[in-house]
Structure formats: structure tokens, C-alpha cells
Amino acid sequence: MAITLLVLLVIMVSKVDASDIGDLQRKVTALKSQIDLLSRRVFFRATFKDFKTSCEFGKVVIFDTAQTNIGNAYSSTTGVFTAPYRGDYVIVWRSFSLGAGDINWDLYINDQMALRARSLTSGDSSNESVMPVTLQAGDRVYVASPNSLNFWGLNHSIFAGWLVTAF
Ligand SMILES: *[C@@H]1O[C@H](CO)[C@@H](O)[C@H](O)[C@H]1NC(C)=O
Ligand SMILES: CC(=O)N[C@H]1CO[C@H](CO)[C@@H](O)[C@@H]1O
Fold it and tell me: Where do the C1q domain residues begin and end (predicted)?
């Protein structure tokens, strides 16, 4: 039985010529790189350790507490998300004013203002901003505040983002 199978196998293998094998190898390589792209996970969400906190005029808003940081691409010490891969991403940020305030946290990509936001509030209130964006590996994304502000931090204000598709 085993010998019959072996003989069959030898006959089959001898019928597969080099170009078929080359073709299969190319397909396997292409599939491997597709699987590699599809298995890339990047997902972060950061807030603040304190309930009441503040940010400074013209500075990066440093969301100092990462609650989720799959792929480790967000730094809670600098407030900067660095895209680990080329791909399409969604970036989201949410501000929650402490009383009246003029929270206009803007989104920066590589030190260029990419989306301006403004919410002049008369009492505690939250505003969300969303920016879908294609990033190259190494692109730096952060939120900066043109004003000095006091605001609600922990689980009130967040900065988040995720990779939709790497390509
Ligand atoms: C803040 O939100 C996180 C995640 O949803 C939760 O685990 C945590 O308990 C919350 N913290 C407080 C103080 O509510
Ligand atoms: C989109 C959104 O929620 N905008 C709000 C931002 O905050 C101001 C001030 O409270 C609200 O008036 C907006 O509706």
C-alpha cells in the first residue's frame, strides 16, 4: 500500500514541471504578503490620568494615559502617534470643556495643520472630531491646542486612532 502510494506520488511529481512550481511559488509569496498586510493591527485610545487637567498655549496635547495601544505606536509621553505602516487610518479626538471654554484642538500631521476644530462653549460640553487619512510609515500625528485651557480629562477627553487597511 505504502509502496503503491509512493510510486503514485513519484509519477505525479514527475509530471509537475519547473514552470508550474515557479508559478505556485509566486502565488504563495503573493498570498504571504497579503496575509502579512491583513494581520497588521494598530489601535490606540488615550485619555488623561487626572479628571481635571490642562494644556498649554501652542503645545501638543499630551493624552498621558494610553488605555489601548496595540502596536505601541502612540507615545503617552509625547502625545504623538507615529504610523508604523503605510495605510488608511481613522483618527478621532474628543474634548470636554470644564465650564465655559474655547477648545479648538487641531490635528497635525508631520507638523502641518491637517484639520482645524473649534468649539466655543458656555458650559461643560464635549465635541468630537474625526479625520480619515492615508499615512506613510513614520508619519507623525498629534493634537495641538492654540489656547491654554482647563478641561475634563480622564474618560472625558480622548485621542484615538486605528489602521483600517495597510497596503
Ligand atoms: C475609564 O474608562 C476605562 C475604560 O473604559 C475603565 O476601565 C475605567 O474604569 C474608567 N475609569 C474611571 C475612573 O471611571
Ligand atoms: C458636533 C458637536 O457636538 N458640536 C458641539 C460642540 O460644542 C458646542 C458647544 O457646546 C455645541 O454647541 C456643538 O453642538
Answer: 37-167
DSSP annotation of 164 reads: E
Query: What residue ranges do the domains of the chain occupy?
Result: 1-37, 41-166
157 lines ligand 2 (CB under 6 A): no
Structure confidence at residue 7 (pLDDT): 62
pLDDT tens per residue across span 49-88: 999 999 999 999 999 999 999 999 999 999 999 999 999 9
Q: Whose CA is nearest to atom 6 of ligand 1?
A: 155
Entry pTM: 0.86
DSSP 3-state assignment of 7?
A: helix
Rounded average pLDDT over 102-116: 95
What are the backbone dihedrals phi and psi of residue 116, each rounded to the nearest 5 degrees, phi first?
Answer: -95, 145
CA distance 143 to 63: 9
> How far separated are the first and last CA of the chain, in Å rounded?
48
Segment 148-161 shows an average pLDDT of: 96
Q: Does ligand 2 lie within 6 Å of residue 67's CB atom?
A: no
Q: Is 157 exposed, middle or buried (0-12, 13-18, 19+ CB in 10 A)?
A: buried
State pLDDT tens for residues 2-21.
666 666 656 666 677 888 99
